[in-house]
Amino acid sequence: MLDPRKLLLLRELARRGTITAVAEAVTFTPSAVSQQLSALEREAGVPLLERTGRTVTLTPAGLLLVEHAQAVLEQLERASAALAAARGGPSGPLRIGAFPTATRVLLPPALARLSGAYPGLEPMVAEIDPADVSAALRAGELDVALVHEYDFVPPVTDASIETEPLFAEPMYLTDRARVPDARDDPWILSKPGTLCHTMAIRACQAAGFEPRVRHHIDDFDTVLAFAAAGQGVALVPRLAALAPPAGVALTRLPLSRRTHAAFRRGYGDHPAVRAAVAAFHTAATTLPL
């Protein structure tokens, strides 16, 4: 019988590429991960890994097992959700990940609704960049998360994660009427590696230029404060620009940011996750979009 916990390690190795990265994700030592994967090979009866020095790659049999591992792990998530539903209504800890704008605007009314409807539920919120959500969900660090995607940045698909659309919001440009008009301006972008940074770069490229980046700032309130101080132009979503500082003009663009709820595939019927997503939907209907 193949051990699902070892299958999870094999799946993470297929995604992360190194045993060290897998160990960091699951808070094991690299030695422990290697031992578990070696044990899985013995259980499978065929080589799953090919080791060349410090490099480890999956054999064709290993890749085949990863495909089946995803189906097994999804069924276990469904079983866990079904057992939780059999025990009763939503209760216990619920680990929620969210990006800062959603944490500030969407989560307070959603959490108030959850607390009123399910006093036994204990929501626990952690801010996280959407780019890191899939790994955190797969590792079991989060139960549900709010993620976003932008125009110009195709979503990264993950077979182990499901998403449910919540709402879309327009993007705004500070102090210019069109992106091409900001060709010669300094720009305020978020840090490289974030979806917002990639979106801004590609929006400028689509307008025919590379932005001259002066500042890297993730917090949109600070971005707008810098724009008000004449430090550059920026692209900001509607929910980050509800109360812009004096002196900042905002022009709505034909671009959008879309927010989704994300959870492990098969886990969406868990009572706590289902209650949270319903609360997100209700809170989204009150947003000034």
Structure commentary:
The chain has 289 residues and is an alpha/beta fold. Helix content is 42%, strand content 24%. It contains 10 helices and 10 strands. The strands form 3 sheets. The protein has a 6-stranded mixed sheet. The protein has a two-stranded antiparallel ribbon with strand order 1-2. The longest helix is centred in the first third of the chain and has 28 residues, at 60-87. The radius of gyration is 22 Å and the shape is globular. The N and C termini lie far apart (52 Å). The model has no long low-confidence stretch (mean pLDDT 91). Residues 2-59 form the HTH lysR-type domain. This is LysR family transcriptional regulator. Keywords: DNA-binding, Transcription, Transcription regulation. InterPro entries: LysR_HTH_N, LysR_subst-bd, WH-like_DNA-bd_sf, WH_DNA-bd_sf.
Give the secondary structure arrangement, pairings included:
Elements: H1 4-16, H2 19-26, H3 30-44, E1 49-52, E2 55-58, H4 60-87, E3 92-98, H5 100-105, H6 107-117, E4 121-127, H7 133-138, E5 144-150, E6 161-174, E7 186-189, H8 195-206, E8 212-216, H9 220-228, E9 235-237, E10 250-264, H10 271-284
Biggest β-sheet strands, sense, barrel: 6 strands, mixed
CATH class descriptor name of the largest domain:
Alpha Beta
Please write the string of helix (H) and strand (E) elements. HHHEEHEHHEHEEEHEHEEH
Shape: globular
The name CATH uses for the topology of the largest domain is D-Maltodextrin-Binding Protein, domain 2
Number of DSSP E strands: 10
Quaternary: single chain
Q: Helical percent range?
A: 40-55%
How far apart lie the N and C ends? 52 Å
Average pLDDT rating = 91
